[in-house]
Structure formats: structure tokens, C-alpha cells
Amino acid sequence: MAQAAAKHGENHAHGHDHGHHDPQEMKILGFWFFLISDVILFSVLFATFIVLRDNTAGGPILSELIKMPGVIAETFLLLTSSFTSGLAVLAMNQGKVKQLINWLIVTAVLGAGFLALEIYEFVEMVHEGFSYTTSAASGAFFTLVGTHGLHVSLGLIWMIGLMFQLKKRGITDVTRGKINVISLYWHFLDVVWIFLLSIVYLMGVM
């Protein structure tokens, strides 16, 4: 009788565990849905740019404005920041909080450098008469590249917030999950930039 009762209690406990959802797992699942929606967003923006890039309305042509040294520098900074974000995850897995924070700082500095170069590029283009409202081509360019830049900015704010959390709480299950997510997000932005580099800049120059 006692064994039957114990078995019933054990089965009930297992049933409860199966019905329970780990909040951290749910957050990661939600983030995957966010990434999927972002993939759809960028796909639409890329398609729009490809359709409209020749509609200059008599204004400046993008190929005449692209300065590849600056674009290469942006690429170097962003790809290097992806590598350092990977090193941050490695430090986290080794339980090294200080090293983790330091790599996040390096990643954020590289990301900020990328944004600074991109803003400088935008300012130069506007001075050349290629602004958001100049033509359909310019509008599509600034919307696509600017949306990526906005995502990088949000990632930097997010990363800085995580640094403060790590200093306060250290490496916990919660902060561990957040670091994994921000690293995944950062790698995603790198992939988007590779498409930008290929479709917008390299094809634009050609």
C-alpha cells in the first residue's frame, strides 16, 4: 500500500515536471522567433533594394559614392567583434567573469567603431546629394543599411546592460542564457552584413 502511494506520488511529480516549462528555455525559444521575423524583414528589404537600386531619378548613382576602403574597415571591425563575442562565450563557459566582461567590452568597442564609420559614410553620401529622399534607390539603400545599423545599436545597448548585470550578479543561469543569446544575435548581424557587403557594396561597385 505504502509502495503504491509512493509510486503514485512519484508519477504525479514526473507529470508535474513534464508540464513545467523552464522560463529560460521559453525566452530562448522566443528569441528564435524574433530572429526568424528579422530574417523575413531583411529579406523584404534586400528584395526592395534590388528592385529599386537603378531608380535614381537623375540623382547620384550609388556606385559613384561607395568608398571601398571604408567598407572594408567596417567589415573588419564587425567580423572581428563577432570573433571576440565568441571569446566572451568561451570565458563564460570557463567561469571567468572578469575575462567575460573584458571581451564584451572589446566587442562593444569594435561594434561602436563600425557604427561610427557607417554614420560617417552616410554623412558623406548626404553631402554628395544622395539623401534618403533623393530617389527610390537612395531610400531603399538607407532603409536597408540603416536597419542593420539600428540592430547593431540595439545590440550594443543590450551588451552594455549585460556587463552591469554580470558585475552585480556574476555568472548565473540567467546571465548565461542572456550571453548565449546576445552572441547568437551578434553572429546573425554579421551574416546580414556579409549579404550587405555582397549585394549592396560589391555589386554596386561592379
From TrEMBL:
GO terms for biological process: aerobic electron transport chain. Its main location: membrane. The chain crosses the membrane at residues 29-52, 72-93, 100-120, 140-164, 184-204. It holds the Pfam family COX3. Residues 29-205 form the Heme-copper oxidase subunit III family profile domain. One of its GO terms (molecular function) is cytochrome-c oxidase activity. Residues 1-20 are annotated as: Disordered. Signal peptide: none annotated. Gene3D superfamilies: Cytochrome c oxidase, subunit III, four-helix bundle (1.20.120.80). Residues 7-20 have a biased composition (Basic and acidic residues). It is found in: Cell membrane. It is a multi-pass membrane protein. Keywords: Cell membrane, Electron transport, Membrane, Oxidoreductase, Transmembrane, Transmembrane helix, Transport. Coiled coil: none annotated. GO terms for cellular component: plasma membrane. It comes from the Bacteria. Belongs to the cytochrome c oxidase subunit 3 family. NCBIfam families: CyoC. Heterooctamer of two A chains, two B chains, two C chains and two D chains. Cytochrome bo(3) ubiquinol terminal oxidase is the component of the aerobic respiratory chain of E.coli that predominates when cells are grown at high aeration. Has proton pump activity across the membrane in addition to electron transfer, pumping 2 protons/electron. This is Cytochrome bo(3) ubiquinol oxidase subunit 3. It comes from Paenibacillus barcinonensis.
